[in-house]
Amino acid sequence: MGYEMFVENVIKEIREQKKKDVHFPEVDLYADQAATYLTGILSRSTLSEEDVFTKDMIANYRKSGLLPKMDGKKYTADHLAFLLMVNSLKDNFSVKEMQRILAPLLENYDSDFDEKYDLSQVLAVMNKLQQEEEELMAKRLSQKVSAIKESLESQGLYDDSAIEISLLILSLAARADANRNLARKLARTYFPDAAAEEKAKRKELKNR
Q1: H or E element at residue 125
Q2: Is the dihedral of CA 181, 183, 185, 191 positive or negative?
Q3: Torsion, Cα of 68, 72, 74, 75 (10° steps)
Q4: Is the pTM of this model over 0.85?
Q5: Dihedral, CA atoms, 151, 154, 156, 160, nearest 10 degrees?
Q6: Among 155, 152, 71, 68, residue whose Cα is nearest residue 117
Q7: pLDDT value at 19 more than 60
Q8: What is the average pLDDT across 77-84?
Q9: Other C-beta atoms within 10 Å of 193: how many?
């Protein structure tokens, strides 16, 4: 199979695997059940065949303060919603960074006074944005292949699949880096490490 056909198949798969609205079970789940359930959701909506959640991972997220307070050993639909959010963050942020990013939602959830956010609506917005990004990704992927071919042909390089594939991978990796860097800059700017900032200020005052 030529790489062009492979790319076409990937584009088709991306478009066919658009996320549907997530409907959580009506009963609360133990950690192993939650891991199996969430892995099933994500395996239907990503191109990865790897397991996404394990029982130990969920326990670690709970101990790290990334989930709302629990009443017993079972995980509610709201806990599952937070676990999906953690999954979106975990590859690019440390636990402490995720704590700061999720703090507004967690504080609202655990508050006895604030009007509660509807977590199902929060997830619906997140899913909609991801669907739109996947559709744009499919379009960009097709455009990148054409642009690479045209650029190489303008330099007298024809049908060199190895170079085309290398350039496509580099282009996709650069795009991923740009998105990740933007997300990290937003997190550092709007959810800064207060302790680190205070330490830096004390050091600056000491050196004056």
Answers
A1: helix 119-154
A2: negative
A3: -10
A4: no
A5: 20
A6: 68
A7: no
A8: 93
A9: 15
